[in-house]
Amino acid sequence: MDIPAQTAARILLIEDDERLAQLVADALSKANYAVTICGDGLAGEALMRQESFDLVLLDGHLPGKDGFDVLRDTRRDFAGRIVMLTARDDDIDQVLGLEGGADDYIAKPVAPRVLLARLKALLRRDALPAAHPVGEALHFGPLTLLPQSRELRLNGEPVVLTTAEYELLNFLAHRAGQVVSRDDIMQGLRGLEFDGLDRAIDARISRLRKKIGDDAQAPVRIKTVRGQGYLFAID
User: What is the pTM of this model?
Assistant: First the structure.
């Protein structure tokens, strides 16, 4: 079901709870987003592949096909943002979503104003110019960051990154040699304050380490500075 609105931003809401889906869709449409509602995982995945959406709100547990499986199977090809809707007390849902490449997660139930603030921050980030001027490639040992094409290469081979992973890596690389706090990262990438509980940054750092071959137990490229944040090391 489509709820029309005069806006350039299109949101796909894949949620099988009809009452919740309608409440969320109503809030989004009042904020001038065009919302498409789908209550089935398989059908939602088909829509993601057939149509163009700026953002997908994806429930973790769906009929037809589990939401985490939809995330896994579409993340590489889907160009927009994917935000997982998870159960409030189920930390494993949050971990699965973030490790699967979700751009963010939102715990249910969620107040409409909080939901709108999170989504606006993500969509605003896409609409703004890059945080750093597009310039020459950045080289860090076997790693090469190509800002113009938004690519990462490891020993000359391309590394597949989600949009959120690239933005975090780009943020850290442009501050190489500096300790960056979680609040700095949240403010820089989302325009939000770090609440002390959000696990998205840590999960994304973990995924980046795996993709660049950094030892999770003793990382040498993206280091954890206890009590302060992260340090992207210079050779």
Answer: 0.61
